[in-house]
Amino acid sequence: MSNEMKKVGRPKMTEEQKAFAKAQRMAEKAQKEVVSKSQQDNDATFQQFDLSDFKGGFGYNGQEPKKEKMTSNIPSLPGKNVTSNVKEYAAELLKGDARIVMDNIKKFSKGEFAIVEGFTTDEARMLVDTYYSIQKQRIELGNQKNAMVREYIKDNKLDVKAKDVDIDQEIPRMQVINMVYNNVLGIETEIKKALDHWTDRNEVGTWLKQIIGIGPVLSAALISYFDIERARSVSHFYSYCGLNKNNTPWLGKEKATQLVNKYTSKIKRIGLTLYEIENAVAQLRDENIGQDIEDINDIAKNPENIVKYADIYAYAKEHAINHSAKDEISDEEIALIANDKSHGRLAAKLVQMAYDPEKKLYSKKKLKKELSKPPYNQTLQMILFLVGESFVKVSYKEDSLYGRLYKERKAEQTQKNMNFEYADQAAKALREKNYGKDTEAYKAYIEGMLPPAQIHARARQYAVKILVSHLYDQMYICKYNAQPPRHYVEVYMEHNDIIGPEVPYKAIDPSLPQGRPIAPVKQY
């Protein structure tokens, strides 16, 4: 048989191709194991393998994906002016990256897992923070990979219908990017396993993970950030996580400065503070003095106007307080600021915020700085946002209490919005902020309605708030083996339609001591 007639066989694979094929097989095996475990875990499915980061979201969102999302291994890529064929082709290029290759990642050993079991909440919180920090970096790296692939397709004008393309061969520099991406993803996965192990040994953690939409990372985050020993009631939980903004609003730099200056800074050419003038007007209006003053700030802006109100000036001068010099703030000034209803902080908290250990005095400057900060934990607020979005995604499940609450609340709020019951709120929003006329918010507000995004946020927050109240009760029972204190809505608002938890609380053991110790509670 001549050489020309010999059957041509498949060409031999290079060493690089062999290594890549082996890595693919190992990745597919790892993916099957994870999918199998996720099905057993039910609603704590961890979606690491669908390139969800290309959609701009977090890789893990703590809930089981819809069935149609599980049937395809080809992720979609975002971006404007990209055809579906280009997206499909780019997804093919990146398909291998959607799996974890952790040959060089050091995994936790049994001994290290045993150490994790003894972690304190502070140590677990450190792991949670690290997890989200690494996850953010992985998402950014994934977005850069996405941009590189799209640029490659555009520059080389490739046939987007091609299927048999090796990303490392097509884009050699992607080999390094892929290695970094997979290693970051591997570390993220190991931290999640450690948190899963830690929450398994925690009564509240196991309770949380039974809730549809809550996985090990969110469970660990909630346990490690909320401290039942520092909260007398669920209202303290609400304030700490930003769900009680009506009572403790975020002032910001400008409002915080105005608040402190109102009680401590004298107006030039008058020698009185704005508060002292306001107080004089309020006291003398009973004598029909100052009735024609519509805005006290007009006097502050135009000091010469005080000449028109000699009686007001004399009264204010007589009752002026003893202001501290330079940067120091007095106890009387702090008390006046504490009584102001614009911030909701306690006087003891303001004293703590104003003290400057370097200068060893109570500083106006430091108080302004501290009051300008958010009065709640922003990281915890982000975690509860993820919890809320998780409930949104599982709202199609009949067994999901919090998903159903979200859906019902959204329907109710939407109907009220269509009936223009929030017209006054829409008008207020237009007065307080300058919205662009091409924005969805402006289009809704100008019609006397709230934008759909705000309705969605309200419904999501409602479901989260119910979860936090249930979390407080479960934490209290587990810690003190007693019934938790009744909530504000029960005692003062006389609500009888209290919503029970999705997962029953732990039973109280009558043979063990019950109740919180008499020692004072250190509040947030």
Give a verbal description of the structure.
The chain has 524 residues and is mostly helical. The protein folds into three domains: 211 residues, no CATH class; 120 residues, no CATH class; 114 residues, no CATH class. Helices cover 55% and strands 1% of the residues. Strands 1-2 form a two-stranded antiparallel sheet.
What is this structure's SSE topology?
Layout: H1 15-41, H2 67-70, H3 84-94, H4 110-117, H5 121-156, H6 167-170, H7 174-200, H8 203-209, H9 216-225, H10 234-241, H11 252-264, H12 274-284, H13 297-301, H14 310-318, H15 331-339, H16 347-354, E1 355-356, E2 361-362, H17 364-371, H18 378-393, H19 401-418, H20 423-432, H21 440-445, H22 452-480, H23 488-491
Antiparallel strand pairs: 1-2
Helix pairs in contact: 3-5, 5-7, 5-9, 7-9, 8-9, 8-22, 9-18, 11-17, 12-14, 18-19, 18-22, 19-22
Shape: globular
Element order: H for helix, E for strand: HHHHHHHHHHHHHHHHEEHHHHHHH
SSE class:
mainly alpha
Give the spatial strand order of the biggest sheet.
Answer: 1-2
Report the β-strand fraction as a percent range: under 5%
Cα radius of gyration in angstroms: 30 Å
The major pleated sheet works out as: 2 strands, antiparallel
End-to-end Cα distance, whole Å, is 88 Å
Overall tally of structural domains: 3
Oligomer type: single chain
Total strand count, please? 2
Total of DSSP H or I helical runs spanning 4+ residues: 23
User: What is the averaged pLDDT score?
Assistant: 77
